Automatic annotation (TrEMBL):
<feature type="domain" description="Sigma-54 factor interaction">
    <location>
        <begin position="133"/>
        <end position="362"/>
    </location>
</feature>
<dbReference type="Pfam" id="PF25601">
    <property type="entry name" value="AAA_lid_14"/>
</dbReference>
<protein>
    <submittedName>
        <fullName>Two-component response regulator PilR</fullName>
    </submittedName>
</protein>
<dbReference type="GO" id="GO:0043565">
    <property type="term" value="F:sequence-specific DNA binding"/>
</dbReference>
<feature type="domain" description="Response regulatory">
    <location>
        <begin position="4"/>
        <end position="118"/>
    </location>
</feature>
<dbReference type="GO" id="GO:0006355">
    <property type="term" value="P:regulation of DNA-templated transcription"/>
</dbReference>
<dbReference type="InterPro" id="IPR025943">
    <property type="entry name" value="Sigma_54_int_dom_ATP-bd_2"/>
</dbReference>
<keyword id="KW-0067">ATP-binding</keyword>
<dbReference type="InterPro" id="IPR025944">
    <property type="entry name" value="Sigma_54_int_dom_CS"/>
</dbReference>
<dbReference type="InterPro" id="IPR011006">
    <property type="entry name" value="CheY-like_superfamily"/>
</dbReference>
<dbReference type="InterPro" id="IPR002197">
    <property type="entry name" value="HTH_Fis"/>
</dbReference>
<dbReference type="InterPro" id="IPR009057">
    <property type="entry name" value="Homeodomain-like_sf"/>
</dbReference>
<keyword id="KW-0547">Nucleotide-binding</keyword>
<dbReference type="GO" id="GO:0005524">
    <property type="term" value="F:ATP binding"/>
</dbReference>
<keyword id="KW-0805">Transcription regulation</keyword>
<dbReference type="InterPro" id="IPR003593">
    <property type="entry name" value="AAA+_ATPase"/>
</dbReference>
<dbReference type="InterPro" id="IPR025662">
    <property type="entry name" value="Sigma_54_int_dom_ATP-bd_1"/>
</dbReference>
Length: 441
């Protein structure tokens, strides 16, 4: 069956150009001159793609994007905007358009865009070898929904979250569930490249263009052509590199060191950092214009302590994986050990949990992990006599001490809450309140 596209534009010339180009790509087309006609077509037929102009005689293309988002959420829609109106294009992406084109329409770009929209339909969102993003807590369910939606878009996404929360995993899933899945996912740790090599790493170089350039090197942008470039720890990019990166993003082209001309590249950008990027902008360490370009859509990955109900699930999966790797039976956490995990703050999030379990899995006896095998040391109490460093967050620091004291007295009273409360000089009610507040079950 032929795939069908809806073209919405009030200019006959543009409609005709789009109709001819899409027909050559074996697509059936329907054309509408305004919002009302577009809505009629949408109600009447099923479409695989919609291209709409931004300014329409009876409304804005944004209205159409929003309507499609609500009523036909699986229909990819791209926005055509006047040259230079990047703000509008960004608004369209935020509203749910999967990509945009600027006028005058570049036919190569148009074909690329149509191709990737149609691949959306061809590739169902299952990549068997991908690890799963586990978690049943409401914020994790919402996150999985957002990932599925953003995978269909071409918009740049800024993934924020503390270290070890799963930002890279999220980036990989966005790539793997989208139309670029068959092309490369290229992760780059912006904090790990020496600044003098950065330009060559990103944009490549020609053999002999500087001492040490022994071979031609394509660079990361070209390696990610047709795929996704994941700028990890993007806050660590030095300012001069930020300028060059912005330029490459704007031009959708790169010039290698020693290269004669710019080469067009088609990459989707995802970025992440555990730092507060808006704060870095305010402090003058990150360029506002680049921030604005990268942060079209922000995805926040919640820290583990905001979803303690997922700790048991994550721990179980991790222990199963460790057992499979060592061909032994999965170790089990004792109820006390699990409770300790659920009461812990996890500054290093899921990665810290994994490391902790890996150590405990190696050390434990008889496939049983006791609370002591976890080696959870809560600073403050464990070294009560030692001089303490000034905490960087007093509330969290006090909470940590409170949790430690409560867990300790619970353990000493074999989890008898009344007895534990008595030891600490608390009423039972106050104890219950604190357990709830600290998320200790
Ligand atoms: N929800 C989750 N389900 C399963 N595994 C997870 C989840 N979140 C994180 N992980 C695992 O935790 C580890 C850390 O994840 P990842 O590297 O994506 O974190 P990150 O946010 O990029 O950390 P950093 O800021 O330190 O780079 C990985 O092994 C990843 O597979
Ligand atoms: Mg990471």
């Amino acid at each position: 069956m032929l795939q069908r596209a809806l073209i919405v534009d009030d200019e006959p010339d543009i409609r005709e150009l789009l109709e001819i180009t899409l027909a050559r790509m074996q697509l059936e087309t329907r054309s509408a001159r305004n919002l009302a006609e577009a809505c009629e077509w949408l109600a009447r037929e099923r479409f695989d793609l919609c291209l709409t102009d931004m300014r329409l005689p009876d409304g804005s293309g944004l209205d159409l994007v929003q309507r499609i988002q609500q009523q036909y959420p699986h229909l990819p829609v791209a926005m055509i905007t006047a040259y230079g109106s990047l703000d509008l294009a960004i608004n369209a992406l935020k509203a749910g358009a999967f990509d945009f084109l600027t006028k005058p329409v570049d036919l190569a770009r148009l074909r690329e865009l149509v191709g990737s929209a149609l691949r959306l339909h061809a590739s169902p969102s299952s990549a068997p070898q991908m690890p799963r993003l586990l978690g049943e807590a409401p914020p994790m369910q919402a996150l999985r929904g957002q990932i599925a939606k953003l995978a269909r878009s071409q918009a740049p996404v800024y993934i924020s979250g503390e270290s070890g929360t799963g930002k890279e995993l999220v980036a990989r899933l966005i790539h793997a569930q989208g139309p670029r899945a068959a092309a490369a996912f290229v992760p780059v740790n912006c904090g790990a490249i020496p600044s003098e090599l950065m330009e060559s790493e990103f944009f490549g170089h020609r053999k002999g263009s500087f001492t040490g350039a022994l071979e031609d090197k394509p660079g990361l942008f070209r390696a990610a052509d047709g795929g996704t470039l994941f700028l990890d720890e993007v806050a660590d990019l030095p300012l001069p590199m930020q300028v060059k990166l912005l330029r490459a993003i704007q031009e959708k082209a790169v010039r290698s060191i020693g290269g004669q001309q710019e080469v067009a590249v088609d990459v989707r950008l995802l970025c992440a950092t555990h730092k507060d990027l808006a704060g870095e902008v305010a402090a003058g360490r990150f360029r506002q214009d680049l921030y604005y370009r990268l942060n079209v859509i922000e995805l926040r990955v919640p820290p583990l302590r905001e979803r303690r109900e997922d700790i048991a699930l994550l721990a179980e999966h991790c222990l199963q994986r460790l057992a499979a790797a060592s061909t032994s039976a999965p170790a089990r956490l004792t109820p006390e050990a699990l409770a300790r995990l659920q009461g812990y703050r996890f500054p290093g999030n899921v990665r810290e949990l994994e490391n902790m379990l890996e150590r405990a899995h190696t050390l434990c006896e008889g496939a049983r992990i006791e609370a002591a095998d976890l080696r959870l040391e809560e600073p403050g109490v464990a070294c009560a006599g030692a001089p303490l460093a000034t905490p960087d967050n007093l509330e969290e620091y006090l909470e940590r001490i409170e949790r430690q004291a409560i867990l300790q007295s619970l353990e000493e009273t074999r989890w008898n809450r009344t007895a534990a409360a008595q030891r600490l000089g608390l009423s039972f009610r106050s104890m219950r309140y604190r357990l709830k507040k600290l998320g200790i079950d």
